[in-house]
Write the structure tokens for this entry.
Amino acid sequence: MTILVIAEHDNVELKPVTLNVIQAATEVAKVTGKEIEVLVAGFDCRAVADQAVKANGIGKVLLVDDEAYSSQLAESMSSLIIKIAAKYSHILAPASTSGKNFMPRVAALLDVAQISEIISVESENTFKRPIYAGNAIATVQSGDTKKVMTVRGTAFNPVDSNEHSIVEIVGVETPDVEKNTGSRHVADELVSTDRPELTSARVVISGGRGMANGDNFKLLDGIADKLGAAVGASRAAVDAGFVSNDMQVGQTGKIVAPELYIAVGISGAIQHLAGMKDSKVIVAINKDEDAPIFSVADYGVVIDLFEALPLFEQEL
Amino acid sequence: MKILVAVKRVIDYNVKVRVKADLTDVELANTKMGLNPFCEIAVEEAIRLKEKGVATEVVVVSIGNKASQEQLRTALALGADRGILIETEQVVDSLSVAKLLQAVVLEEKPELVILGKQSIDSDNGQTGQMLAALAGMPQATFASELTIADGQAIVVREVDGGLQTLELNLPAVVTTDLRLNEPRYASLPNIMKAKRKPLDVKTPEALGVDLKCYLKVIKVEPPTERQSGIVVESIGELVTKLKNEAKVIG
Ligand SMILES: Cc1cc2nc3c(=O)[nH]c(=O)nc-3n(C[C@H](O)[C@H](O)[C@H](O)COP(=O)(O)OP(=O)(O)OC[C@H]3O[C@@H](n4cnc5c(N)ncnc54)[C@H](O)[C@@H]3O)c2cc1C
């Protein structure tokens, strides 16, 4: 049996989180001696496979290049994966909105459990995962012959991507995969930014309700520019329409664990902490000294953010 | 159009849960419980569709012990028409929940099933997708906008990169994200009225579903706590510390 990693990509670029998932797969491989294969399913996505072959520790890359997978809809992805599932003991995908969308479908069609957001591999069938917004860590054991799981990227270091260790790309024909006739992709409204991607940035600076409006997020931009940081937000800031949904950090948004996380005008609700408390260094800027964010912060400053942010930018 | 909404009884979202001393589970005795927030959003969306004249009936279903009747009554007070409790004392895996819901779907034949995108206890985020797979229905997860028109559901989804719009044939499964709507509060008269609304109790056996345990929880531990840090006096001091002590900026 073999281990399968589903690559995350947009038909052009392999998303870095795939390398973190390959690390999780490598840990399964270490205890099982199994080989790792990576599936790139998309349309006009050869370039993605060309990037995937460089990942250290994998045996081969499977390329499924077909219009049916252009938007990687859950229906099509799950039909494809169950068709090729027979030889795999472990199927892993990132706990991204894409992996979370199709992996439970895969599991249900295979009549096995799906294990969500693993943060460690304990053995071939035992894994750890956070529950209750990360306020408890469960060790779970699967009795199924196939383990279908999503991986929390920030819990695993990415494997190296090495120009020289190039493995084979195998094209896979899939004529007998069930066609998806139930759902159609209409449009994407993707937010483009020159900043690093939130979940893999070295530094993240996030604003909360204290920012008061969307315009004030510009105060974070100058600092983010200087630090090469990604900009995030609390749910309250997204709900209030200050910024777009893709910036939400937390239990039900994105999970980040940068070297430096700076929370500005964020109170530190459990749901927010769930998304950032594994950051290496946490800074809190808040005018309320009793704000719960200070209990997880390595460095706190009790100050009005409108005074603090211009100073901060200057000092850098 | 009939809408089926699945709801779950969970720990109140304001409560910070504690792990039991014997590391078998979290402490739920004497803990405030409530309707899972994402399920509340699902109920609200169904009721709005009924108010718009799109839906004719809203049926809420829950799987859990007797106490889950409370959450069904809450949903009925918000405006759902009738409730179904599939009663069991067992902890039920997502896949078994999906199988039970599939049995209800076969009986009720809804044109739309709305669920929360995740429950804030197990944080699995699986049930809707699993149900869609078992029922052979198309799905749209993480919905922030839902429109029913010409026998289709048009759904805007919150994805990592921004927003995605899908069109689904009905019947379909939709799971809710935070920004789909802001749930209302139940009024006192509606809470009273809800007590008289029909609530059916069924068993997993009667639905022909065997509650297999697919995933065993062998230990539950507290997370590693962060060391508490320090409060510095000024932004200048902060920057110095970040450079020289934490060494996270150049
Ligand atoms: C089901 C569910 C899921 C959720 N998921 C998430 C999630 O994924 N992510 C998330 O973030 N939240 C989530 N929440 C919401 C969470 O509970 C909080 O409501 C939210 O995080 C609060 O955001 P905030 O800290 O920006 O706002 P508030 O709690 O209002 O805090 C604002 C802070 O700003 C400070 N402030 C105000 N003005 C200034 C100023 N001028 N200078 C300095 N400080 C100032 C205040 O002192 C306060 O501490 C979820 C909630 C639920 C129920």
Remarks:
- Chain B is about 25% helix and 30% strand.
- The longest helix of chain B spans residues 37-51.
